[in-house]
């Protein structure tokens, strides 16, 4: 009898220990999964931070982030305008692969987004701020909610102070400075996830410094010697900086900062209030050629910083070419997320670089501006019209579903005609194809390390490299057309 009692007690104790071990392992596994916060500004140029040398703009919080984390000095937006870059950010693919050719164009619902991918690793997901990849009406196939986000407080396009937003489909007005209210909405989501002990992905897309520039008085006062247009413009950038400072402080106060990967970048080059050759435009791009809307360096090279204290122990700077196409594969590598049917990727994981290892890109980076017009999306008008049709608990008004045809593959594209500007960056070299108004192409070659302002065409001095890179660009464009015509969705 005593032996049976002892055996039963031992079995019970072993079972308790095994159960406790499982609980501890599960808790440790949860704790090991980093949180991911991905931030992006709207039309902020490569030169529009203090750490990149702007003589006027004050960005102390971004400067501190640059001084403590990983600074990516050759980071590229996938496109020189907003919606396409946002699509690349979410998918790791060039936006032409899914027909997101210009501003106001949408995702395709067939695409796999980073928000959908990380769910396989147990993450909860949220989007906050500018969407601009389709409707923010809840039943749209390309709304944030139908693109993988559990919680979303989103605007159809850029927005200013006291903005109207779609909160999981219901329109509401937030009160406060544009960038700050966006971060506060994201922080509410993060606190909720922390309470549930759930790792999170938060995508924060600011509406600034996009036109029209409307900084609050406190931010304009930072620039007393500037004319009103630039008080507003610079003030909006400082507003983003302060919001980033608030976000970083809150992450520390919540005990989340150590194991949170925080990534900051912009969606394309700048569009200052005035364009002067040697004035604000040159300062906005840090002396790079071009600006928003073209494939010169000033149109696509943007500031980018990564902070992750648990992994990035000392400040680092990298001049390896990388870009918004790399965000998706990097997040998958960091989180261990799995995707069963992965369409062709253009991006590569930057995790080795983040971990402090030397890294070189495995394949060149392609760019292609397809000559298609943008689609106007006036956020406040759209949201006020939607709000009038809503009632409590019923976010979707009767009538046609916005962007219902976003996944259509009826339009098919030629492999022979590859219209528009294009570029290929391979290490230090860039081949650039520009078209005049008649569609006549001109190809040039630049060494970006020696000539970052793209002043000296090397196509005649280095004809073999020029020929090889032109062929590689065309080959990449053919791959893009295959995706555009639906090849990646065959299964």
From TrEMBL:
Residues 34-336 form the Sulfatase N-terminal domain. InterPro entries: Alkaline_phosphatase_core_sf, Sulfatase, Sulfatase_CS, Sulfatase_N. This is Sulfatase-like hydrolase/transferase. The lineage of its organism: Bacteria, Pseudomonadati, Planctomycetota, Planctomycetia, Planctomycetales. Belongs to the sulfatase family. The keyword Nucleotide-binding does not apply. Keywords: Calcium, Hydrolase, Metal-binding, Signal, Transferase. Residues 267-287, 443-464 are annotated as: Disordered. The keyword Oxidoreductase does not apply. Residues 451-464 have a biased composition (Basic and acidic residues). It comes from the Bacteria. GO terms for molecular function: arylsulfatase activity; metal ion binding; transferase activity. Residues 1-27 form the signal peptide.
